[in-house]
Automatic annotation (TrEMBL):
GO terms for molecular function: ATP binding; ATP hydrolysis activity. InterPro entries: AAA_N_dom, At3g28540-like_C, ATPase_AAA_core, Mitochondrial_chaperone_BCS1, P-loop_NTPase. Residues 20-113 form the AAA-type ATPase N-terminal domain. It comes from Buddleja alternifolia. Its cofactor is Mg(2+). The keyword Lyase does not apply. This is AAA+ ATPase domain-containing protein. Residues 186-307 form the ATPase AAA-type core domain. It comes from the Eukaryota.
Amino acid sequence: MKIVGFMLVRALLEQYFPHPHHLKNSVQEHSEKLFTFLSPRIQITFKEFTGDRLTRNEAYSAIETYLSSISSAQARRLKADIVKSSSPSLFLSMDDDQKVADEFEGVKVWWSSEGKAIETKTRKRRLFTNSGSSWSHAPFENPATFQTLAMEPENKREIVKDLLAFSESEDFHSKIGRVWRRVYSLDGPPGTGKSTMIAAMANLMGYDVYDLELTAVKDTTELKKLLMETSRKAIIVIRDLAGPQATKLGETKEQEQNDHFELLHFVDGIWSGFGGGRIIVFTTNNVEKLGSDWMGRCRMDKHIEMSYCGFEGFKVLAKSYLDLEWHHLFPRIESLLGEMKITPADVAEILMPKNVPGNAEICLKNLISTLEGAEEK
């Protein structure tokens, strides 16, 4: 009764004193403190996994078992799992965002299960980087999408289809006894859009990104620790596989290739017994340097070649940067792009208006001039 009376007073104050924000904020602050003091409820959260995320929380498992019969009687949505034992049985538990009532020694208790999918969808994505064997993170704010990616439309559709199929294949992987993960390799010269592709993947899937810096990793023990501390449903990026960070000074080409294979097999071994829902992306600027049998030996699920800018990719950039669907200079640009090699990053830099609102025709002529100059050379 006291709580109801207090909430009525608070509502009246907010109705008749709507403008003085300092008074309103003060009322809200003190009302929340008083409501907390008067409320008899206490919230306790049990995490499904322990702090290191390697083992399941025993308390969580015990509660899940205890609630099995209560959930089946009260919850409107249930999750069903098969308990593997000498005599397999069906185990029922609350589905996400369900709540059931219970009583313990005369005290009313409410049990609820939070939806991980909802939490992942609504929270902001993060970009993780490593220093030694530990991760730090910042907000992931790259807005790249497949719609703005300068790439042939058919290739983009194929990649999106593959990613969406992977996102829905958890049950299938469990059925056939394979770890639910997908391994991609991105190959292309600098500026062809490998980083943009990774950002587009992350935004499509709603995944965090772990950008693994190999040069900061001391040994395989640190590498194992880093990989096992990544979250479920995340993209783990290992860059420049054939670049300086993956090559030791003085090594022969054969030694370099063996190191690459050892790294990939080591990573593959970790995932074979841990986790799921992860996408692993290897990037390289020169796939030939790794050897012709690299793809066959390293269990890559999909190889994506990031090529130079073609006309279809240019049209995506022209739409994004200049808001142009068509222009009379497009045929000349199409002809030049068919003969010259230029990266999407370089095209984007040329199309970027140098003033606001900018002149689209000037930007297009600058691109033509650059391409014609390269053609002459």
